[in-house]
Amino acid sequence: MSERAHANADESVLQAEVDALMEEIGRAARDAAGELARSTAEQREQALTAAAAHLRRSAAEVLSANGRDMALAREKGLSDAMLDRLALDEDRVEAMAAGLEAIAALPDPVGRVIAEWDRPNGLVIQRVTVPLGVIGIIYESRPNVTADAGGLCLRSGNAVILRGGSESYHSSRAILASLAAGLAAAGLPEAAIQMVPTRDRAAVGALLSGLDGCVDVVVPRGGRSLVERVQRDARVPVIGHLEGLCHVYVDESADPQKAVAVVVNSKMRRTGICGAAETLLVDRAVADALLPRIGAALGEAGCRLRGDAEACRILDGCEPAEEADWRTEYLDAVIAIRVVDGVEGAIGHIRRYGSGHTESIVAEASVPVERFFHELDSAILLHNASTQFADGGEFGMGAEIGIATGRIHARGPVGAEQLTSYKYLVRGDGQTRP
User: Fold this and answer.
1) CA distance 418 to 6
2) Which residue, among 139, 159, 151, 154, has the nearest Cα to 27 in the 3D structure?
3) What does DSSP say about strands 124-131 and 420-427: parallel, antiparallel, or unpaired?
4) How far is it, in rounded angstroms, from Cα 248 to Cα 343?
5) Is the dihedral of CA 223, 224, 226, 227 positive or negative?
6) pLDDT confidence of residue 5
């Protein structure tokens, strides 16, 4: 047998092993989903609060595991933005634990009657929320997604199969241990929250196949290439967004102090998250007066500026922007700047280049704000507030799995409520249809 034939044979064996492993995980998740359907809201709350307590007690182990991931990531030469996404410290571990408790405190999203009506023939019809079933979640380097996704799926009565990025493998496994401890404390099956125990990419393909009907929906959380692959290859419904190409528009009527604060926070609070602003649009009427203040504040915060010809004329040290800059999700300390003709120019730019994620307008006048809110259809629109509020925790959802930019099922932050569907309950008294 040739060397290539040996390699192909070995690959086939490996694929078969991965497929068998994933099918076992899928069957266990489907069984666990059935048990969760019979669980009470109190059991799920208990599991989440117990998981939070265990995570606090295990902080040292989680940070040690994260240290291993960080060392490997530095060896691979990951960018500073990717390292920031991967890094955990005591505050971030505490934020995960607090997030689990916040999810536990949410109203139960399952079994809620969202509509009810009577028919002339006496039938009583209710529309009632139910879990989606088994959710597959594929994400990249942020280990906190393990806690957020596991917690939200549990709260909404869904079993979940997590496939984290190879960079966060050790961190995510350490976090999963706390979720498993919480499930055990509440008498719920540990298979309700599973993590794919291999870094082999073949596992992703198996998960996208639906695992012979065991997976009901897939949620990708990561960069454009990941989401495009999931949307292209999935054989089950997908909830996701391609990228966070977020904009801040500063109107003629903007308060200068608010404008500086909102723009700098939108871009620089954390540059590696999907809610970070990537493009700044400034009304031509105030560009000469206001843009130097904003540019100086961004520069002091360590941000590089790339602008159109007008922005480069106004700003010292501004690099000329190319067409690609208006379509780039930098996830880094870089921002593209364009001078536009009022709110109409801003809307036109966002419609052409935006990804439908999050946009913010800084303005004191009501007319441009109403136009901005009415004529743009991004999932999240803000007024006089940072784009970094595009976060389920900030929306009072406890946490989020991601920001959905589609128009079917869920839009914006995907929290526990968005991980439910509904069914109809129809009660009669012997009615038959003529």
Assistant:
1) 47
2) 159
3) antiparallel
4) 11
5) positive
6) 41
Q: Which of 355, 322, 344 lies closest to 249 in space, CA to CA?
A: 344
- Using alpha carbons, list the distances in angstroms from residue 9 to 189, 205, 209, 283, 388: 37, 19, 22, 62, 49
Cα 382-146-52 angle, rounded to 5 deg: 95
Report which of 317, 315, 264, 261 is spatially closest to residue 291, judged by C-alpha positions.
315
- The helix or strand, by DSSP H or E, that contains position 83, with its residue range, turns out to be helix 80-86
- Residues sharing a CB contact under 8 Å with residue 65, sequence separation 6 or more, in sequence order: 170, 171, 173, 174
In the chain, the domains with their CATH numbers are 3-240 (3.40.605.10), 246-395 (3.40.309.10)
Least confident of 68-77, 240-249, 307-316: 240-249
The two structure tokens encoding residue 330: 């930098």
pLDDT above 70 (res 266)? yes
CA distance 283 to 372: 13
Helices 284-300 and 342-353, interaxial angle, to 10°? 60
The confidence score (pLDDT) of residue 224 equals: 76
Q: What is the DSSP string of 272-291?
A: TSTTSEEEEEEEHHHHHHHH
Q: Locate tokens 């400034």: which residue?
A: 282
* Residue 114 DSSP class: E
Confirm if 126 and 115 have CB atoms less than 8 A apart.
yes
What integer pLDDT is reported at residue 10 of this predicted model?
A: 45
Which residue is it, tokens 């801040």? Answer: 248
- Rounded Cα distance, 75 and 77, in Å: 5
- Counting other chains too, the contacts that 365-368 makes at CB distance below 8 Å and 24 or more residues apart are 365/251, 365/252, 365/253, 368/251, 368/252, 368/253, 368/342, 368/343
